[in-house]
Amino acid sequence: MIRHIKYLKSVQRPLVRILHIKSPLQNATSVERVVSSANTTKEIESSMPYIIDGQKYNYKEGNIYQGFLCERVEPIADFGLMSCTLRHLGTGTEFWHLDSHDIQNVFSIHFRTKPFDSTGLPHVLEHLVLCGSENLPVRDLFYKMIIRSVANFMNAMTGPDYTMYPFSTKNEADFRNLQKVYLDAVFRPNLFFMDFLQEGWRLEHQDLHNPKSDIVIKGVVYNEMIGSYADNSRFFKQKMLNYILPNTYGHIAPGTQLEIPKLKLEEIVNYHNKYYHPSNARIFSYGSFDLEKTLELIDKEYLSHYDRIDTSFSRIPSEDRWSQPRCASIQGRPDSSISLDHQNRVGIALLMCDITDIQESFEVKILSELLIRSPNSPFHKSMIDPNFSGGFTKWTGYLPNCKDTYFNVGLQDVANNDVEIFEELFDNTVHKVIMEGFDSKLVEAILCTQELLRKQQSECKRLLYRSTVLWNHDGDVVANLKISELFEKLQTKLKDNPNYFEQKLEKYFINNKHKLTLIMRPNAVHEIERRQAEAKLIRKKLKETNDAEFKKIYKNGLKLEALQQAPDNINVLPCLSINDVQKPIPRPQIKEITLRGVPTLISHEPIAGITYLKCMFNTTGLSLNDAMLLPLFCNVFSEMGSSNHDYRQFDNIIRSKMARLECTAKIVENVTDSKTYRLGLLMKAFALDKNVWDMFQLCEEILLNFQLEDIDRLKMLVTNYITKLTLDVAKLGHLHVMTASSALVTNAAQLKSLLSGVDHIDYMKKYVKENSIEAIRDSLKSIGSKVFSRSNLRVAINTSENNVFKILGDYERFLTHLPILEHNIEAKEIFLLEPSFRYHNLDMPLSFCAKTFFAVPYAHEDHPALRVLAKFLTSKYLWPVVREKNGAYGAGARIGFDGLFNVHSYRDPNASNTMKVFDKTYEWLQAHRYKLDEQAVFEAKLAVLQLVDWPISPGEVSLDSFVLGASYDIYLQYRSRVLAVTVDQVQNVIEKYFRDEPKHFGKCILGPKSDEIEV
Ligand SMILES: [Zn+2]
Hints:
Elements: H1 4-12, H2 28-37, E1 64-65, E2 68-76, E3 81-88, E4 94-99, E5 105-112, H3 121-129, H4 141-146, E6 153-154, E7 157-158, E8 162-169, H5 172-187, H6 193-199, E9 202-205, E10 215-218, H7 220-228, H8 232-244, H9 246-249, H10 265-275, E11 281-287, H11 291-302, E12 326-332, E13 344-354, H12 358-372, H13 378-384, E14 397-399, E15 404-414, H14 416-419, H15 421-436, H16 440-456, H17 460-472, H18 477-480, H19 483-496, H20 500-510, E16 515-522, H21 526-543, H22 547-565, E17 590-595, E18 598-604, E19 610-618, H23 624-636, H24 647-657, E20 662-669, E21 676-688, H25 692-705, H26 711-727, H27 733-742, H28 747-756, H29 758-770, H30 773-787, E22 793-799, H31 801-817, E23 828-829, E24 836-841, E25 847-854, H32 863-885, E26 890-895, E27 900-908, H33 911-919, H34 921-927, H35 934-948, H36 959-964, H37 968-980, H38 983-994, E28 1001-1007
Parallel strand pairs: 4-11, 12-16, 18-22, 24-28
Antiparallel strand pairs: 1-2, 2-3, 3-4, 5-8, 5-11, 6-8, 7-8, 9-10, 13-15, 13-16, 14-15, 17-18, 19-21, 19-22, 20-21, 21-23, 25-27, 25-28, 26-27
Helix pairs in contact: 3-10, 5-11, 6-22, 13-15, 15-20, 16-24, 23-28, 23-30, 25-31, 26-29, 27-28, 28-29, 32-35, 32-37, 32-38, 35-37
Zinc ion binds at residues 1, 3, 123, 127, 221, 224.
């Protein structure tokens, strides 16, 4: 389970920042220099990345560095990296370093943590590790460090058989600070009983101060798992893993509601001693900071204090192969918006190869993509085209997440009668492919897409994630990153044997008895049963409790509360100084030109042979009815083919040349005055440099000749769109609730909610029910005829410098062919709404709450101080009260570019209480003036800087400038204002914006039905 830090990031991050990030492939001149020094005779294509091969490298195999023996040094040309594998002499700990010129640096420690039951032991341990350690006895370590660091990523997660603790930062002082914190946390955690009660589970009086009040179960992980498995998709995936690998992965590592309360602290302590021993650890680093300093710290402070132990106890064996297929049936939560007999989920999983068989695993991945990814894929044709479900289940495809990998395909929102035919459909599809073979055009298309995507995914955290599971099972992580070699080997096999994939299909899909069919049916009384089981569990626990223990429940409750309110001595934690954060991100290399009347931003950054295209069509002039269908239009128009190629042909052509088009509807407020907003359609595409001409051609084809006449196809796309909308509501509830409460404050935010929030979901469900597919088609066609014009277009192109000149001709040709439509409306006026409160029923056991008011837009001089205040409120008020005391999984405050100030809670068991906490913000600020000192303001500034300087991928450089109009100069000014914020300024904005209830505010709760809530 991904911990709360991830959640926090996802809350704080939705705005993309301008950043020049040095990719692993430096600038073009250094590429040439390094390549020539390598004396390579091979011709370098423009798409060929930077190669270190032959470069003089610091570390040599056989040498010892700070107690570590260097075992293997090897270049990874595909990512322009040098890999260096070391082993600690004393403990045998493996250390893997990826040397790169990247300014982004990553560090991670992970342990192989096999679960023995579903009490969530490794997961609770992961939480406890962050509750303080020997040298750093501070609770909620990550959370406290967030405000003392500029890290752009800090996390801890529990996988099915590993627990990992990664972070990344661009600042070396920060990197060293965080290393110290991480190492002390994992190797010397305090594992105190009170922290166990808070993070794991505990019995507690409903009213803490009344020993006669009812007893309830609380605990961060306990609540987290109730929320987590309320998501049917996640639960289905988890159960599929448990059933397909019953001996090796039969337990639920993050824990289940009924099993977590069996866990004892003592078991955790013993487990930590054994499984968090350095011999069972794997340590990773990536980037340009000095490796030897890292090795020295690890050896001196930690590893040298341990001996080596045999770690075969944590190894996961292979699953025994079945002699016949199996079936399993489970129950899920009902969805009140769909009829109960249409809510089944059915899936089939098949065991594939061992994860350490790298070439095989790679080929099975391609095979799986062939089967499902494109509309030309066999499973797509047989299961999706007939349109009898809500589409594939999430995570359909190949899952290399464990020792044994597996493939799975499933359908959601299936009618009772159709559940039975699924298995037959599956078998028929496989047989048909074996008889007829794969379409060679599909094979080519899928191979091209995979190559493009893998080249694009060079981001350092992705490299780590891609390697973690394999490494956990002692696989060759270096070979796994040599993508070109894997592709070449496969290409040779395909050349030698035209039936290669068909034979593979026969092996894994016909002659494979390790096959599971899993059915999930909705249980209408799911939530009632869950509550009953909880009540029964509490009664059972109380029965086993004697008088003395019962009194302890009351005492511990008070003790924990006192502890939560006691000030932490956070001064023991390392902290950056103001000098460490002076440097802004470098100015991106941008050219602004106007071509054929189209304003164009060309950003020429060093990019790995990929060109990115973004087109923003201003659609502010659309009527409200049209605007509300714009998101659906974005989702379907490029999936329907063109007048020259049907959707099947078109899909093959697109995949062979570029990544699929991505379109979204965007509402952008003016960041300077917040007086106007624009509505736009943002279209994104990218391709290898050698295919740029094709990319422009294909974009032109779809923009000018898209066609919506294939009614069956359109119907299927619309159905799947509606299903997808509801899928992540529970996971993204905090974003939905902020959108919904913002919608009560301005008309622009109201439109946003109608285009992307819960209002959009409600509207679309109703709209699709009430309109024929022909009527929907006609409406979409009419939108299409009003949108794509050169007169309302702006474009951004990100490419490498030496490519700019080459592509301009293709780009101009593309523009020339676009039509010019008149009567465009540039922007609309924003107006503020009357205060209101809204409650929206959600089929969830927990709630999401928000309160929003209008403050000032991004470019206003008060914005930085308000943003600093938001961070201060999050860490000093909302987090301790709403999360630690009231038991919500998360809480926070933020102010957006649009000037709306939000406070919110996430997975909240106590919504009405939280709304009161939101209302008392000013009161609390008054009573706790003393907390707002120099250090607190500085910490809040660091937290703001993390977001202001957020790293972004090469394809997204200057996106802020392009989409929001927040240029680099505006960023610079904003950044220096943040650095200059004083305690007095924060006090001023408190008085100015918080003393009186704002004139324009909105409050919203998304959550289960409750009598307590008055609307
Ligand atoms: Zn967790």
